[in-house]
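FW: tagging you since you asked about this chain on Friday. Here's the raw sequence from the shared folder, copied in full. Didn't touch anything.
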Amino acid sequence: MPPIPGRLCSGSVSLVAKLGRPARQAAGIVFVSLLWLPTLQGYTGLVQTEKLGGVEEPAEAVALSWTTWSDGSWQASYEHRFDHRLGLRDWMVRLDNEARLRAFGVAKRPVLRGPGDWLVEEGYLPSTALVRLRGEAARLLATCAQLRVLQEVLASRGIALTVLISPNKVFTVPERLPAAQAMALAALAGRPKQYDVFLRGLRATGVRVVDCVAFARHLVATEPPAMPPMFVASGIHWTNYGAARCAIHLLDELERTAGLDVRNLAVAAIDPGAPDGGEMDMAHLANVVDTTRWRTPLGQPVVALRPGDQGRTVAMLMVGTSFLWGLTSTLKLHAVADPLSVYYYDRTRTDFVGGDSRPPISLERTADEVLRELPRYDVVVIEASEGALLDLGNGFIERVLRAFDVEPDSTLGLFGYGEVPPLPSVLEGLLDWGDLR
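HL: got it, structure written out here
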């Protein structure tokens, strides 16, 4: 008996041979047309396409030379640019991801799928939030010491500083983790995390902090089931309701700890609705064809001034990550913060004036800019997620201190390796934690 592959091949040939000449010609035309369809789409744009979710590195051209040819860099560059210019590439990627999700229940990296189609991004997994080295813990604590200096420098100029720690979806709703990551989370229980070390350091140094991590977990544990959740399956960040509650908490804490008479807000009602773009960002990052499985009913908050409130409008600068956009959706209402500005990763500035956002502009990142811009604000809020506190401020703290002639600790650039930064005596005892090396 001939081998199986041969039988399959001969069977296929026999099938083609049985077709009439016109049918074979038509099949050939269809086959060749399909091969040329991506090229035709690239030149004509006949089919509507949509940009893939996520961030893709721009394809840079590499000049052809004997060196670039022999080391393969020219070929890699050409392939990269060809992929990005290929017509219908977004459809090919989405169809592949959709088939993978439906057939095997697996999302494509950097997205992981947990129970109930719950989506998690790799960058937020439990292991990323750990403090493994003594140097990392020391760097977090040294940042706390710098924040205390910055708090005093700004206070002398009539500006209140507070640090806001935003919650990680993974730790807030751990039961929705994929099985392997749930096991990893259980195995890491008791190990020091960035949040644990940093919060102790902030309290020891007397830096104002709005702990939205504890606040979010309290809401998850105590809110009635009928209320919208803090996180949803389709989102990376908090829901609009979760962000509104944390923004209201921020204003309450500023009034309590900084002595500011701000305008206080409350969630007056919950309107029926569905996830919006921000609450679907994880589903878009998954790059599948059909996202309707995540478009389930989701209540949306109606925010109003707290009855009887007589607070004043404040000028607020917020420095941090994409979690800030949810907060600004509430803080721009009812003249709570005006002007309201966001330094996004300390790279661009977006201003909200009268509740309307202006196009983002690049920051100069100079001392003159700090001295010119910072006096416009009554409050500065520096935010970071509980699993990314080593990058708090993305350089903002250091450049503001330098602008006011205070030299920050240069050893903080070691990112947890090399020598341990010198610490104030009040913080030294916090390094003796578990099995930090």
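FW: Residues 4-9, 410-419 have pLDDT under 50 and may be disordered.
HL: agreed, and The two ends are 66 Å apart (CA to CA).
FW: great, closing this out.
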